[in-house]
Amino acid sequence: MNETTMTITMWWMQQFSAALPVFGRNLGLLVAVPFFSQRGLPPQVAVGLALFLTILVVSAMTPQLLPVPAGDEVMIDFLRVAAIFAGELLIGLAIGFVARLAFAAVQLAGQVLELPMGLALAGVLDPVQGYQIPLFGHFYYLLAAQVFFLSNGHLYLLQALLDSFYLVPPGTAAIGEALGQTVIKAFGWMFVTGVKIALPVVMAILITDLALGVAMRVVPQFNIFMVGFTLKIAVGFLAAALSIAAMVSYVSDIFSGRGDYIRQILEFIAGWQGR
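Structure (tokenized):
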């Protein structure tokens, strides 16, 4: 092997060692986000998109954030880069998991409002996920998916991924107390967001229950069980229909980067380093 071939080979190994951690974080994110973790989607799609994102990220990053090992240290650093790749894969999975919490909050809202409506046992089989999901939760999830793309949420998510390399450069992340605190905050945000989305419908059903209670006290012969069940379902559907516009606006703010969605992701990444 002549000197030119050795130089080219060493250069490619250097670039590979530098880009492998970036590819790991990108792949972890795409595996964890809802749209690329579907059962019917071939894994080659996520791998190919992760490779494409790696090329874009590496070309945009500065050499200080993407250190390239020296020529005589490539073979020694290759094992270290492989270990870093595993850590970056976990970071990408964690970022994607936090991103997934926004959709989980929407599904949680559907589950919360189904219980007072008497539809807790109603559900539909999701052929993509492979298990039964709540009726309203599935509807809200599909609605949120449309809002996600219409409000350019996927672009803000990619921007958050790029910002993560500046907050936590490849190979510098460390698991500490801040990680646990940030994960707890992310879960708390998910529950609060789900309750906010479901609150208008729940309040409408609660007022209906109070009205039925007063009617039963005034007219004891009133068959509350027969009328109340049907009335609460009707009021629930009506309140859900009237609150869809507000729900779409709220979810759009989350996905567009003006709300808590991107902030939670970036806080999670920064919290990983304890900043």
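The two ends are 48 Å apart (CA to CA). Strands lie at 123-126, 131-134.
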